[in-house]
Every structure is written in C-alpha cells, then in structure tokens.
Amino acid sequence: MIMSDAQDNPKLKVIGPTGRPLRLEDLPPANTKRWVIRRKAEVVAAVRGGLLSLEDACRKYTLSVEEFLSWQRAIDQNGLPGLRITRVQEYRGDEN
After folding, report:
1. How far, CA to CA in Å, does 12 sit from each of 3, 62, 91?
2. Could you give the CA distance from residue 53 to residue 37 in angstroms, rounded to a whole number?
3. Distance from the Cα of residue 38 to its chain's centroid
4. Helix (H) or strand (E) holding 47
5. pTM of the full structure
6. Which CATH fold topology does 5-92 show?
7. How far apart are the C-alpha atoms of 70 and 91, rounded to whole Å?
8. Domain residue spans in the chain?
9. pLDDT digits (tens, 9 = 90+) for 40-52
C-alpha cells in the first residue's frame, strides 16, 4: 500500500505539470512503456509533492533511482523541454 503525506493530509495539494491538482489516480499506469514528457513530469511532481515516495515510484514504474533523478535534474535545469530524450545533447550544452 502506498502511504504518503498527501494521502495522510487531504489539505496538501500537489500541482502537476499542467498546473492542475494531481492525484494518485491521475498518474500514469504502472505498465507505462512510452514515457512522454507529461508522464515523466507527473511522476516527478508526485514524488516532490509527497503524493508518492521515490521508492514507490521506482517500484511502480520499474525505474532506477538514477533514471528518476535524471528526470528531476532535467526539469530543474531545463524545464519540461529537458525531458525530451531526443534533444538531450542540446540541453547538455554539448558543442561539436
């Protein structure tokens, strides 16, 4: 069972990447294979907001901690566009 601050405290609001409140039911399904920007951002927002623990998120979505942290870093450094896997080099600042 997933326990979290948001579940224990109904007054706690977690805002998703679209600016709307985020609930556990709004998160991507556990069997998600195609990780688009919005889905990654929802999982990061859920963990940051206390809706889901890092451990629960990694277990539910079969993510490594490193993969989740890379999503979080990408958002911190470049916003949602940083989550685009095809544009990673541009956001890393690689110059060839």
Report:
1. 14, 27, 33
2. 20
3. 8
4. helix 37-48
5. 0.78
6. Arc Repressor Mutant, subunit A (1.10.10)
7. 13
8. 5-92
9. 999 999 999 999 9
